[in-house]
Amino acid sequence: MNTLTPDQLTALERQSIELPSWAFGNSGTRFKVYGTPGTPRDPFEKIADAAQVHKHTALAPTVALHIPWDMSDFGDLRKHAEDHGVTLGTINSNTFQDDDYKFGALTHEDAAIRQKAIDHHFECIDVMDATGSRDLKIWLAEGSNYPGQADMRGRQDRLNDSLQKIYARLGDDQRMVLEYKFFEPSFYHTDVPDWGTSYAQVASLGDKALVCLDTGHHAPGTNIEFIVMQLLRLGKLGSFDFNSRFYADDDLIVGAADPFQLFRILFEVIRGDGLNNPDVTFMLDQCHNVEDKIPGQIRSVLNVQEMTARALLVDRDALAAAQRSGDVLAANAVFMDAFYTDARPALAQWRESRGLPADPMAAYAASGYQQKIAADRVGGVQAGWGA
Amino acid sequence: MNTLTPDQLTALERQSIELPSWAFGNSGTRFKVYGTPGTPRDPFEKIADAAQVHKHTALAPTVALHIPWDMSDFGDLRKHAEDHGVTLGTINSNTFQDDDYKFGALTHEDAAIRQKAIDHHFECIDVMDATGSRDLKIWLAEGSNYPGQADMRGRQDRLNDSLQKIYARLGDDQRMVLEYKFFEPSFYHTDVPDWGTSYAQVASLGDKALVCLDTGHHAPGTNIEFIVMQLLRLGKLGSFDFNSRFYADDDLIVGAADPFQLFRILFEVIRGDGLNNPDVTFMLDQCHNVEDKIPGQIRSVLNVQEMTARALLVDRDALAAAQRSGDVLAANAVFMDAFYTDARPALAQWRESRGLPADPMAAYAASGYQQKIAADRVGGVQAGWGA
Amino acid sequence: MNTLTPDQLTALERQSIELPSWAFGNSGTRFKVYGTPGTPRDPFEKIADAAQVHKHTALAPTVALHIPWDMSDFGDLRKHAEDHGVTLGTINSNTFQDDDYKFGALTHEDAAIRQKAIDHHFECIDVMDATGSRDLKIWLAEGSNYPGQADMRGRQDRLNDSLQKIYARLGDDQRMVLEYKFFEPSFYHTDVPDWGTSYAQVASLGDKALVCLDTGHHAPGTNIEFIVMQLLRLGKLGSFDFNSRFYADDDLIVGAADPFQLFRILFEVIRGDGLNNPDVTFMLDQCHNVEDKIPGQIRSVLNVQEMTARALLVDRDALAAAQRSGDVLAANAVFMDAFYTDARPALAQWRESRGLPADPMAAYAASGYQQKIAADRVGGVQAGWGA
Amino acid sequence: MNTLTPDQLTALERQSIELPSWAFGNSGTRFKVYGTPGTPRDPFEKIADAAQVHKHTALAPTVALHIPWDMSDFGDLRKHAEDHGVTLGTINSNTFQDDDYKFGALTHEDAAIRQKAIDHHFECIDVMDATGSRDLKIWLAEGSNYPGQADMRGRQDRLNDSLQKIYARLGDDQRMVLEYKFFEPSFYHTDVPDWGTSYAQVASLGDKALVCLDTGHHAPGTNIEFIVMQLLRLGKLGSFDFNSRFYADDDLIVGAADPFQLFRILFEVIRGDGLNNPDVTFMLDQCHNVEDKIPGQIRSVLNVQEMTARALLVDRDALAAAQRSGDVLAANAVFMDAFYTDARPALAQWRESRGLPADPMAAYAASGYQQKIAADRVGGVQAGWGA
Known about the structure:
The structure is a homotetramer of 387-residue chains.
Chain A: H1 6-14, E1 17-20, H2 43-57, E2 62-66, H3 74-83, E3 87-92, H4 111-131, E4 135-139, E5 143-144, H5 152-169, E6 175-179, E7 189-190, H6 195-203, E8 209-214, H7 224-233, E9 237-242, H8 259-271, E10 281-284, H9 293-312, H10 316-324, H11 328-340, H12 344-353, H13 360-367, H14 369-376
Parallel strand pairs in A: 1-2, 1-10, 2-3, 3-4, 4-6, 6-8, 8-9, 9-10
Antiparallel strand pairs in A: 5-7
Helix pairs in contact in A: 2-9, 2-13, 4-5, 7-8, 8-9, 9-11, 9-13, 10-11
């Protein structure tokens, strides 16, 4: 069992995890954002950093962009990415940093502001055309802080209307994924707070609209793997935003807070034919507030890989037999046996067989890249969540 | 503002809250169930007790039954209810107390056990035919306690299959409401844990299948009024199970834990045309573990009435104006102004004008009913959650 | 019942709620800080704004400062405050915005950084000497984001050592209050996460060290009024930071999220002789992310006053009698009767009798102050959470 | 690293986990208690079952009793235990199943009921004298369901008074451990809801009173290992009740819900010199609602052992160095490296070297014991949480 089968290794070889460009910029809390030497100053430097993750792991061939943070000449950026061995991925819109959006964007009471937000998404679709991206990701940061402040019902209707207009603009091979979030930045209501709302909205739009599940966007105690199962069953899981959390939307390294939860999620992905399924994009969405960013991303993709390997190790025939017979302890034992198994040695060996470093973290540290960017990237403004 | 308008009083006069027969039996925690003198020994005594609530409040004309707990001659029971001034309401099925259902009922791996559970629902529909009830309520208590114990995906598919069979048996004027619950009695996964799952299931069945929202069945921090709004918007809110909670499914008196939340829920009911809407049944579902049961139910319906009155007092034109202008403090003030207003004096006066006691709690206490049942109901087995 | 007694009015007249200078500056989330016209540019303007709250409510005679945000000539600032009818209150230290404190301040592994943080508190005590402030408030923002990142035990010991040094510097009439917080800005462990830790730390220091309870700093579901009761019982409740929350440390207007919880807290304050007790400071700590700041503060102090009035209305003799007799419904009814009572009309009348506006929100809006500061405060840098 | 050192094996060999006699009886939820063939009918059969766990694992040499559930001739029971290779351990009192205790026991308003509860604890101390037990464990199930129902402050004072009387009765070598619990069976307030309250209470009693930490008794998101660290630091961690949970006090198999949390807890135990420390008792407290009881207990003690082994594998020198240098990713990597390591092969080998089965679960299943008790234990009343 400790050895991964050829089929399992093939599945792992096909695994692809999209990186968020913004993970390489500075981030923090409302209290403080710490800067670090070598932080990128523009989208090109972010892409270069992201390419380091792929170089050492072969797990991260695409990079998601955030508009307007990554506005640039997308022909140049696309070529720059390809030169670095990666491609451009999902385009993320931003409707939470313009003064006009203080009380909503796609849901705003004022039709002019709604149109401005819709136009922003049209612009994002133009970017997709230029970058060759398939997916438009909408995280709806809208909501209210006080009971009575907003008409939740009217906003939901307006949201549907706005989404229909954006949906209509999508190309034949393009998709929209709608992310839900329990709370923050709004503290009373969020317009898309749960998977049910995202599902109801996208189901009304059509086949090209799907749900984006961010693993940090749920109420305490939520069984996330159940939602993964349900969305796969309903054919509406468009993408993951992986990260981890102890409390709120902490945006920690994937698997850092609860590796067993990550294992359970990946098991349901496999169970529901979501692994290496082109319809289900794996992405990271994280904030490296106190740790180094490039190795932080390497650690995240390795954690996803490790838990995917362990989830593949579940003896599904034995599991099904134990489940059928109502043998609770036997079924749990089959499941835990895989989770308890250390796949790292087998993965390290296999990595080397593919010309990759056995230990990507060590390889990156030894590469001198961090020192080089710290020395080279002097002056300019470090990238962060501002425009 | 302190005075309720004639229209508001008419809305309040039409308000109807269904009582659960089981609230009059003993209930408790896994640690202890306390009995009390006068507890009913059979469905007829439960109905008699429930009728006391209606007698003093005019708010609770119907009583929900639980099968098999309330199995009896339903012709007799129906007449008994009518003799006491109430009618029989929703029929609740039970798939959580038979040894066969230890690992599932409508979702069970074994087709024979699924059929047994389906047959139980057919029996419930037969009861509905006998009692004249419209609604079949299914609380799905099924799930698992350990990761790996159950195949969540397979269970979801089997659930849908079972529900389709039950749905097909419904009469033209009958409905099914599917209740969701975050956790308990299962502690890892629940087969219908959230409104999204209930919605996806009933949406696939047809117009006669709707969602039942129990106010105690959510993850900590969930914005319940948002779900009320959404289900009303989607045309799928079939019924409420009202109660309140500080922690889990505490099943406390309605409004006891957070009266402002109850107010917000009722405001969204009004906003979404759910008040006195025959499609949206108001029910209680509670456990009076430490307090007297009949006055506990009286307190609950009065709390619903009080918060309905306050929610009706919201100046919706002023609210809409403040919302449109983005005046957060003004909108919140309009909302809070209604919540802060004490509707009790106006309601007491109005009650008297209708020949009802100004203070139903005092009237019940003074009636001597409690002393009478304590004296009369000697011997027999007090009703509880056992068969 | 609807009328406040002379004793109750006297208690209300003595009520004093300290305002945080930083509530008048801009604040927001990690995603966006919205600015508004008229926002203060320096501590003097913050004091002027705070004085408006007191002018219209007579509830807020003192203003807390935050160091270094409010560094200035404290002789001048003190006189400026007095000229505006208020005085300077609690001094708040800041160990969360200096690059040196990325991995801790009073708990840091490096003795030099600990000393720097201790010295900052010495400086705060110097400020207290200059301002005549009694209390030094320490919110310990320290912690870690990842398991293994920090040695929690060693940090706890170092924290105690650092606090002892600061404690030793306090004057005879000065106090230290240590605030605890469940999480944020750290996402795995916080060095003072709960009241127990704060209590154990301050109990080891001496009588001049007490606990500060921020109502937004607890785990979901925590019974905060129990902690209030316990700390009063142990003689260690030094101060409150009032605000409200639905999810995390949302820092909303006091009483906005759960007015009944605020009522319960204030009832325990009264029960434990904490009302108008000079040992127990009432403070606000809030962020007005989307609402106007000055009226936001007015709303908060009015909410505290309203719920204090309602809590004073509890018939404690009747309550005690019901509690003694085990009459759950009667005890709860006595309690809820007070909460359900609208004290606003009586308070408005009483306010007018004291020469205050019946409706402070309306009076402020009519005063033209907001328009004046919006017009006058042009140029400069709006105050916020930066230095 | 994959090999446990002799020192580590010695530490593991000394590990001792006390079993709760009640885990072998039936338990369930308020909805249903499922019985299973072979369930013990009396304390003697419970002891025999518990001895099976020790026989196959050498990890569980003592069995805790619950009074009055396990009332018997304790001379006989003690000898019976010794004949089965185990000894009697902690005595657990019960103040939650007598009708008199509906509104409190040690905290009750009525001095006569308080005295009855105190007398029950005197009786438990008598049992301790007869069984040779050192520890008296008090889980305080008391509290209230509704705001206003109880005078929390008065109850806290009466609790202290009652505990002092019990404490005074303890022998020189006896101890009291006071367990805290967030909620249940009370749903508004619990008289000892958190570690701070338990600590404040026992600290006022003396050195023989300590805190009992049940891993399932915290608010959502609580960092339990922090509390372990703090109580060890304060010298007040008397015992653990191990189990696991996803939602509330689910009482699942230890480590089943979050193995990484168990690892972190055991790391802090080691860090704070709590492992194999006679002052810190390791106990289980669980409910095997749906799984077989004896193998359920075997699984639990094996999970504790596995995570203890992994926690021992943490390279503490490397960890300290990384922590000192502020290298977040390196420190986390050292920590995770141990958690990711599979200690099962090494433990299996070592078990065999001590004459124990490599796979205790398989050995128990093969032993035929379960079939034997199912066949033998016919008639009588299966033990559960009733008397």
